[in-house]
Amino acid sequence: MDRTGIALEAPRQSAPVRRRRLAGFPLGLLLPALALLGAELGVRAGLVPANLLPPPSSVLEALSWLADNGLGAHIGASALRVAAGFAVGAALALALGALVALNRTAERLFDPSCQALRAIPSLAWVPLLLLWFGIDETPKVILIAIGAFFPVYMGVVAGIRGVDRTLVEVGLLYRLSPFALARRVLLPAALPSVLTGLRNGLSLAWMFMVAAELIAASRGLGYLLTDGRETGRADIMLAAIVLLALLGKLSDSAMGMLERRSLAWRDSLAEKDKR
Amino acid sequence: MSAFLDIAIDDKRHSERTVLRGLRLGVGQGEIVSLVGASGCGKSTLLSIVAGLDSGYRGALRLDGQALAGPSADVGLVFQAPRLFPWLTVAQNIVFGAGAGKGDLARAAALLDEVGLKGYGDALPKQLSGGQAQRVAIARGLYLEPRVLLLDEPFSAVDAFTRMRLQDLLAAAARQRGLTVLLVTHDIDEALYLSDRVILMDSAPGPVRAEFSVDAPWPRERSRLAASPLKPAILDSLHAAHAF
User: Fold this and answer.
1) Residues with Cβ < 8 Å from B126, sequence gap 6 or more?
2) Across all residues in chain A, what is the average pLDDT?
3) Which of A61, A128, B8, B75 sits between 20 and 30 A of A107, alpha carbons compared?
């Protein structure tokens, strides 16, 4: 037996070490990278016309040109609209959702209307909002607020209604007032569902922002899309889409981080996987 | 002379079904009483009523001569499951009943020491085993220094060894404080080990069917109690009361 040969072999990595290395690899970038590579090669090989699908290199050039020509103002305008609309929509949804979940009369009064309004497509609001509020910022913020409202409302209602009855009993045993019960038991217990609603609401706020800016805007990422269509610049349209994806992902990641920090107490599968 | 805890339930219904009817039970100050009986005979319902969590009944409760209506700081309850708030630390769970921000964390730490969980104050409930979580629930039940402690099958979900340790812990805590205890259990050995008196409830609507005094001195020996003639007597009555 060649003992020296065995001793010289490199130590094999254990399965957990390999798993950790794989976990560190940004697997989520694989599909976008392959798509970009495919698009670049496809256009260069003449398989796809460049005026319909500009190669990623042209999109990068468009982004670079936009950066020197007011891209910051466009991003700022869109982000401000999303922030304002999301804040208004989420605040109203938190208040109304809590009221509906905690009060049977409020539920009978508001919930059927909310469910009916929820079914209305975003674009159906646009003509009416333009008629009522003109083409200023107000209709855009309201449209975004409508988009953000319903996921948050649903999350709050479902979260509070789904609170473990046995925990509520503990609160009652300690003679908590209805307000204290809501603050100390119902809302913390409903937090996972509320945060999921907020996260979904923020995603929808970005989508509704594009709808709002497509109709009537002179600044913003939605405006860039319209401008690109009208001038036949598919590279600008794709650049705007890429920016929307990046900004949406960025805000979702921030919300996800807030969710993880706020819910560190959860004994869920996701928390276990992180340990 | 009326008892320290005087329970008189004329009628208690769940929907159309009568769960308790004509129940009269007196518990002396510092007495530990176990309630045994088959599932559904109304034992846990009775504890909910005494704890003030169930007000839909006809009857009257008195504690030390005063009417008892609704939840009271004088009455603590330890549930079958620990029911800890997962977003609060162990210490915050223990002081929960004191009101937001009013808890005495030093006293919570002393209680944790008493239940054998010294240094666990900052832990989250998810970091505890089932037995540890139930010990925290007992500490929470004791925190407000109730005069009556109600226990609803508190050790049914833990292993045999942990159960014995928790029983010893409870017995010591109750005797030391002179607590009046009403314990619901399915375990006859547990009832005999912990109680001064064992009450056998009839099938629903269950009045009291039989009472057994346990006159063994403290500290008690489990093997001796298990071999005592009380156990077969209670089991015979239980079979007779709840025959299918």
Assistant:
1) A265, A266, A267, A271, B86
2) 88
3) A128
- Judged by CB atoms closer than 8 Å, whether chains meet at B87 and A175 is answered as no
| Chain B contact for A170 (CB, 8 A cutoff) | yes
- As a three-state string, the secondary structure of chain B is CCCCEEEEEEEEEECCEEEEEEEEEEECCCCEEEEECCCCCCHHHHHHHHHCCCCCEEEEEEECCEECCCCCCCEEEECCCCCCCCCCCHHHHHCHHHCCCCCCHHHHHHHHHHCCCCCCCCCCHHHCCHHHHHHHHHHHHHHCCCCEEEEECCCCCCCHHHHHHHHHHHHHHHHHHCCEEEEECCCHHHHHHHCCEEEEECCCCCCEEEEEECCCCCCCCHHHHHCCCHHHHHHHHHHHHCCC
How many C-beta atoms surround the C-beta of residue B227 within 10 A?
11
Measured CA to CA, the distance from residue B123 to residue B231 in angstroms comes to 40
For A55-274, CATH gives 1.10.3720.10
Yes or no: domain B5-241 corresponds to CATH 2.60.40.2310? no
pLDDT of A1 reads 42
Q: Which residue has the higher pLDDT, B207 or B213?
A: B213
Partner-chain contact A267 B81, CB within 8 Å: no
pLDDT at A41 over 70: yes
Choose the weakest-confidence range: A221-225, B163-167, B218-222. Answer: B218-222
A174 close contact with B: CB closer than 8 A: yes
Buried b (16+ CB within 10 A) or exposed e, A195-225: bbbbbbbbbbbbbbbbbbbbbbbebbbbbbb
| Chain B residues inside the 8 Å CB shell of A170 | 79, 83, 85, 96
Indicate the domain borders of chain B. Answer: 5-241
Rounded to a whole number of angstroms, the distance between the first and last alpha carbons of chain B is 38
Q: Which region among A50-59, A147-156, B122-131 has the lowest average model confidence (pLDDT)?
A: A50-59
- Mutation choice for B interface testing from A163, A164, A170, A176 by most B CBs within 10 A: A170
Domain residue spans of chain A: 55-274
Average pLDDT (B65-91) is 94
State yes or no: pLDDT of A275 exceeds 70.
Answer: no
What pLDDT is stored for residue A116 in this prediction? 94
The band of B46, judged by pLDDT with boundaries at 50, 70 and 90, is very high
Whole-structure pTM value: 0.81
Q: What is the mean pLDDT of residues A91-112?
A: 95
Cβ neighbour number for residue A146 with a 10 Å cutoff:
23
Rounded-to-integer distance, Cα A123 and Cα A102, Å? 32
**Using a CB-CB distance cutoff of 8 angstroms, which residues of chain B are in contact with residue A174?**
71, 96-97
